[in-house]
What does this fold into?
Amino acid sequence: MYADDAHAQFGGELIAQHGVDGPHGWLDLPVAEAVARAAELEAWRDRLHGKGLMVSVDEHTDLHRFQRAGWQHPLHVGAIDVGGCQALGIEWEQGDHSMRHRGERAAGQVYPVTLEADRAGEMVLRWAIPPCDFDDEAE
It folds into this structure.
């Protein structure tokens, strides 16, 4: 009900979440700026409207950026820029192929990725995952 008023007053973009529209807000702000903006919103909410609007600041890691990059892809994959390099993020579940290749974040794996146009003008995503070392399977 007050969401439209808040959006009119403060702006923000509609944030898609897993392919559907989510709340209005801002992504990838510096933390200090996000906290200051949240304080403005909370003061506005408390002064004019009382309760009913939610304000949150969530710090995100590159893992969250990978997940967000893959929301629109059917396989939940996406590439992001990390320190000037494109890196591929694949949102694998336990038991997926990633476990066999130690691709989970806990193993510290990062695989370089390139996006190139093929002869037909379609984008091709390329990455290399090292082969599985079956001697380590018993660990």
User: Anything to note?
Assistant: Residues 31-49 form the longest helix (19 residues). The first strand starts at residue 13 and ends at 17. The CA atoms of residues 7 and 24 lie 7 Å apart.
